[in-house]
Amino acid sequence: MPDFTPLHGRSPKGTLPFPVALTPGQERGAAMTNADHRIQILLRHVAVIGAAGGLGQGILNACREAGISFTAIVRSRPERITDMPSGSRVAVVESFADRPALVEAFSGADAVLTALGVTAATSEISALLSANMVAIEESMLTAGVDRILMINTLLTSLPGQPASRAMRFFSWMPGTMGRGAREQQAVMDELGNGAFLSLRWTLVRGALNSRGKDERPVASANWDGAANSWSPVSYNAMGRWLLEEAAANKFVRAAPLVSRKLK
Question: Architecture of domain 43-259 in CATH?
């Protein structure tokens, strides 16, 4: 079984403010001066797979706040991506098996962030991360990028461990929910079997939705001693955290829990 011990990365430079709860009258997104809410970064450009969805838009918003350019990777309807910072672009990649398209989309990126979910329109194998991890890995290496962050759910076990009871239950459900649970578990299983071994990957077991709180989440290696709650954060808050981790490399080859802090 591959070693999933977190690895620590390079010493970065520069800073990225993380917005926290604002008092009445303060402008949302104002830069914080407290050092506890600043992290050092190396990111200049990121590639975002699934950029048109809720989390994808949250990541793009975080990029705009931080002054990081991006490549927004979508399967269709590129017109959904607006407000493009300098150096940013949209890449239409209809299939994750299309290596040339992926190489072009990943070109110039310091990290790849995935914001993929299973919907009624994503039943094709070509749209699933779990079925195309070899193509994505090879394309990233060809493009010269080896850092990738993927989103999953708090309900999954660590890679290499049996599926949790909750994931087994949801996997049996019909429709999109069942397919989504099976896909999320399949990604975990592929990582446990050695997928992405040449990449610095992080699999985020996160709690997030459109109604989540726009507050800084807490990250823990696992449930033992964790300060995590089951409560979700907003898409924007998770997008900021993903950028932080893409630069900090605190949870490389690990699957941290990321959710609101226990009160």
Answer: 3-Layer(aba) Sandwich (3.40)
